Amino acid sequence: MIQGTVTDSLHNPISNVNIYATGPDSTSVKAFDYSDSKGEFTLQLNLHQSYLIQVSSLGYKKRVIKLPVYTTLDTLHKHFVLQTETTKLKELVVKEKRDPISIREDTVIFNTDAFKQAMKRM
Question: pLDDT tens-digit profile of 69-78?
Fold first, then answer.
């Protein structure tokens, strides 16, 4: 078993961090946990296997460590310090799309622009 904590560079605990163990090929997840409000987590691991421990959260650089063949029943304690990472997002444009016909109580409203677009496609 691995128990540990995740903090930022100022030693503040980080909650909801993904902590997971994969096999050495990193294709299959063997154990998984989220850090709690104190930054604490626990992973249950099988003996006599090696693992990659991956720690990631939005806004932080991902950490990956190699854990050699796990051969002890003792609890292994790990502390991860994540460095902040700025992610630049692409521009997002939100456009309103109204229904061509809407009904409000006893009134029928026609969106004429919607019909213009339909005529252009014909």
Answer: 867 778 889 9
